[in-house]
Amino acid sequence: MMKILVVDDEPPARARLGQLLNDCAAQLALTQVGQADSGLAALEAVERLQPDVVLLDIAMPGMDGIEVARHLAHAPAPPAVIFITAFDEHALAAFEVQALDYLMKPVRAERLLAALRRVQRLRPGEPRLEQLAQSLGATRTQLSVSERGRVVLVPVDDIAYLRAELKYVTIRTVAREYLTEESLTALEGEFGARFVRIHRNALVARRFIAGFQRVRGKPETDGEGAEGGGEGHWEILLRDMDERLPISRRQWPTVKAAAGL
Question: Do 183 and 229 have their domain in common?
């Protein structure tokens, strides 16, 4: 039985998709497990309901469907996504290149049924949501983390640094810390323009760099030497925070260049 979640900010559109799914149920084993009216509600519903397929509207206020898909791409077992869109032909070509499916509004029952049958034929790991987001130039404005059964959105603008620790990455803002299972490498690939790598396990937001301080002695460096070795090392000073982070010898030239030194 295919479990389907409907996501659209307009109640009539959600109702219409629900009716179409009822029509499709006569020819395909499916059930609608829920509806969501926003990007955040969609992320929470996916975590709670674990649908196989998300019918996802693109044009939603706040967090649009492409950003929602990018969040879903980092889920342990992401659902298949069928986009509901009014994009022009140029943008639709990007969907076709990534072997993704989409439905043009107004959605027709036969087209929805064909899209759902296509989902049944997808190999594991498809559709490739991350590649789609990159092809459309979409970058998340927030990171989503799960805390005590709910989804919390952390604005990327608020993040001072990202640091890999064991199987998690710590997301640090001025106010507090969060944990995510997304890899530091993937986060650097998506947000490299905003962050600079100061160590193999840490990225610092460029706008949070307040300065540098030379410190005597060698810090614990997790196998990657700090700049200056036993004679001392450089640490990065962060705006609005007392915490300081060591800079590795390897990354020191890059960090200096990012700070315009």
Answer: yes
Task: Answer yes or no: is 144 within a domain.
Answer: no
One DSSP character per residue, 122-140 reads: PPTT-S-HHHHHHHTT---
**CA–CA distance, 164 with 150 (Å, rounded to integer):** 23
pLDDT digits (tens, 9 = 90+) for 106-155: 999 999 999 999 888 876 655 566 666 666 666 789 999 999 888 999 99
CA distance 223 to 110: 58
Same-domain pairing of 184 and 244:
yes
By the 8 A CB rule, do 161 and 204 touch?
Answer: yes
Name the token pair of 53: 């397929």
Neighbours of 5 (CB within 10 A): 23
C-alpha distances in angstroms, 91 versus 45, 81, 161, 177, 247? 27, 17, 34, 37, 42
What is the number of domains present in the chain? 2
